[in-house]
Write a structure and sequence with these properties.
Elements (H helix, E strand, L loop, with lengths): L1 H25 L5 H16 L2 H8 L4 H37 L7 H4 L35 H8 L2 E2 L5 E5 L6 E6 L5 E3 L3 E2 L2 E6 L15 E3 L6 E2 L12 E3 L6 E2 L21 E2 L11 E3 L6 E2 L12 E3 L6 E2 L12 E3 L6 E2 L11 E3 L6 E2 L8 E3 L6 E2 L8 E3 L8 E2 L11 H10 L8
Parallel strand pairs: 1-4, 3-6, 4-7, 6-8, 7-9, 10-11, 11-13, 12-14, 15-17, 16-18, 18-20, 19-21, 20-22, 21-23
Antiparallel strand pairs: 2-3, 5-6
Helix pairs in contact: 1-2, 1-4, 2-4, 3-4
Length: 430
């Protein structure tokens, strides 16, 4: 029995020591006060437990008392862990709601769910730009006179106004921050003798950069741009991209309301999701070097009037021109084989010209007035609610139409007859 008492005493001491360590550790935790208080109370409770008194009165219960004390300490530890985890979870939820810098906004990541709907973060102002539009938008691969004049005012940024680091291969420099106050800047092509190769994400983002930067020239030495580079920067008007970049990153110019024009270099092959979403872009030419465009590239560009797409793009993804309310005529180049059902959801396209590379059509556009059916068309399941005229090539002989394709449109009687000849069996609007 003496050995059992020693064992019980040893276990009791271990339990008390564990409580002491728990108390000391709790002081270093975020919830330190609560943990410290809890651990202290736990220690006092252990000392006052009836198990020790019982063991003294009934020696046979000594071993049981030791195990009971040990189990109680384990329970205390588990409860403390639960309390601390609960506190961390609450903190994490709060940060998620405030959307910490670097987080991709939910509206840019919404996946296609089988129906078109407005994004979950409505734009407060369609365009917060203070500039006045002096002329109609036009398609061009050259900068306007205003842009060229603005670029001439840009001054090379001194190294003291930049934060930077070595690139991963240690052969170049990555710019990580701009700390200067100049509004029109030209980034250096070399820093401390090494070429500037990369610009880190969000360097000129609206909630990161302190100066009201409106003009940026990025040197041709740069080959990689970070995501959300100018995101929500409502001051930025002109950005000269380097001639060697292959991709425009996700949300690069997202919500840049003052930026009305951009020239994309011929080196670019990929434009990532939401790259120009909610920006002030009015006209854009996507060079033929681009072979892929991701979702929502121009989503909610309310001032976008003209778009020239690359002829090497095979698929137009979900929401690429969603809710672009100023579009007039849209020409889809030869080479495009597939248009997502909601590529143009909510856009105000008046005339849509489709390429002969398309064999199947299945998309949704409310305001389209005129459509030119491609000679290669074999299947059409669109619904044209505002259609007034259909241009049909003589070479088109037969098409599989959905029965509701023209039920909300009222083309001319001659066009209705031609559509019947092609195989349309549904109704026309009265």
């Amino acid at each position: 029995m003496a050995e059992e008492e020693k064992e019980a005493e040893s276990l009791g001491d271990k339990a008390k020591a564990a409580a002491e360590k728990l108390k000391a550790s709790a002081e270093n935790l975020n919830a330190g006060k609560k943990a410290k208080s809890f651990a202290g109370k736990a220690k006092d409770a252990i000392n006052k437990l009836p198990f020790n008194t019982m063991a003294q009165k009934v020696p046979a219960l000594a071993k049981f008392a030791a195990y009971a004390n040990y189990a109680f300490c384990v329970l205390v530890l588990l409860l403390l862990v639960l309390i601390l985890r609960g506190g961390k979870g609450k903190s994490s939820d709060t940060m998620a709601m405030s959307e910490p810098t670097g987080a991709i906004p939910a509206w840019a990541l919404n996946d296609y769910d089988g129906d078109y709907h407005e994004v979950d973060e409505p734009v407060e102002n369609k365009n917060t730009s203070s500039k006045k539009k002096t002329k109609p938008a036009e398609l061009t691969t050259k900068w306007s006179k205003e842009a060229k004049k603005a670029f001439k005012t840009a001054k090379v940024v001194p190294e003291s106004d930049l934060r930077y680091e070595l690139t991963d291969d240690e052969e170049g420099v990555r710019i990580t921050a701009y700390t200067g106050t100049a509004e029109a800047i030209s980034l250096p092509s070399k820093i401390e003798g090494l070429p500037v190769r990369e610009i880190q994400k969000e360097v000129f983002a609206g909630d990161v950069v302190k100066a009201p930067v409106s003009v940026v020239i990025i040197p041709d030495s740069v080959t990689k741009l970070g995501s959300m580079l100018f995101y929500k920067n409502t001051d930025i008007e002109y950005v000269q991209l380097p001639s060697a970049i292959e991709a425009i990153p996700i949300l690069c110019f997202g919500e840049c309301a003052s930026m009305e024009e951009i020239v994309i270099p011929n080196s670019v092959t990929l434009i990532k999701g939401g790259a120009f979403a909610r920006s002030g872009i009015r006209a854009i030419v996507i060079p033929d070097s681009v072979i892929e465009i991701e979702e929502k590239t121009f989503m909610q560009c309310h001032d976008l009037e003209l778009v020239q797409l690359s002829s090497n793009i095979k698929k137009l993804p979900y929401g690429i021109l969603g809710e672009c309310e100023s579009l007039g005529k849209l020409i889809i180049p030869n080479g495009v084989e597939e248009i997502n059902g909601y590529s143009f959801g909510g856009a105000s396209i008046k005339e849509l010209v489709l390429p002969d590379s398309m064999t199947e059509m299945s998309f949704f556009v409310e305001d389209i007035k005129t459509i030119n059916l491609p000679a290669s068309l074999t299947k059409c399941t669109c619904i044209f609610s505002g259609l007034e005229e259909v241009i049909i090539p003589n070479t088109l002989k037969q098409v599989e139409f959905g029965e509701r394709t023209f039920e909300k449109s009222h083309p001319s009687l001659a066009t209705q007859k031609r559509l019947r000849e092609l195989g349309y069996k549904g109704k026309f609007a009265q």
